């Protein structure tokens, strides 16, 4: 297979794949008994707005899929977050966006705050050949989730006291349709985790974390290769991912054959 050139149609599909997986992920938190985290998902035209009362981080309080034709929805979006006293970010992709949207953003007093890379690549038809001391296993049972949550917690820079938070708000992905979770061990010691979402012809590499003391050992390279192979087994035609601009994560994806689709403009 040859990586396709980026057309406007393909770009829209990549953008939608991200909105779909984030919606599914946040929906899994909302579905916890009694919605203890205070999750809300709202639609404004083509855009999806996410809010989680107990999680102030930008990922969980963001707007995806905003386009020129949604410019008249900006005031309603601002009111949605202002009424909840929450800072938020709007992710602006080149898909169906232009001067009309940028003018409306500026008129509302919003400004660009950063960049983020969107990448795409091909599934791998051959099983990955990782280092002999690195093993990748799929997490399929609740009894296996403790180790996953611990590495996710440490790899995200949080203290172990926060592990219950990572347990409660990620275990909803376990055996959820379209989701696969993986644990990597280095010399039989849990070292890294990764997650993917499969929806139709596009798979998404959605999350990756390595415990600080095990970085620079090829853990994430092995996890990327495993997910590319899983995408092939699922019959996907493409794999998408996102990463901080110029980050180690972006570098790892590019070394695995991903290409930058575009650099996202982040507004707030």
Count of β-strands: 11
Name the strands of the widest sheet in spatial order.
Answer: 1-2-3-4-11-5-10-9-8-7-6
The low-confidence parts are none
Q: Quick check: average pLDDT?
A: 96
| Rg over C-alpha atoms, rounded to the nearest angstrom | 19 Å
| Global structural class | alpha+beta
Overall morphology:
globular
Beta-strand percentage range: 25-35%
Distance between the termini: 39 Å
Helix count equals: 7
Q: In which range does the helix fraction lie?
A: 25-40%
- The helix/strand order is HEEEHEHEEHHEEEHEHE
Instruction: Characterize the largest beta sheet: strand count, sense, and whether it forms a barrel.
Output: 11 strands, mixed
Q: Could you walk me through the main structural features you see in this protein, from its secondary elements to its overall organization?
A:
31% of the residues lie in helices and 29% in strands. With 268 residues, the chain is an alpha+beta fold. It has an 11-stranded mixed beta sheet, sandwiched between helices. Helix 6 (219-233) links the parallel strand 9 and strand 10 (238-244). Helix 4 (145-155) packs across helix 5. The model has no long low-confidence stretch (mean pLDDT 96).
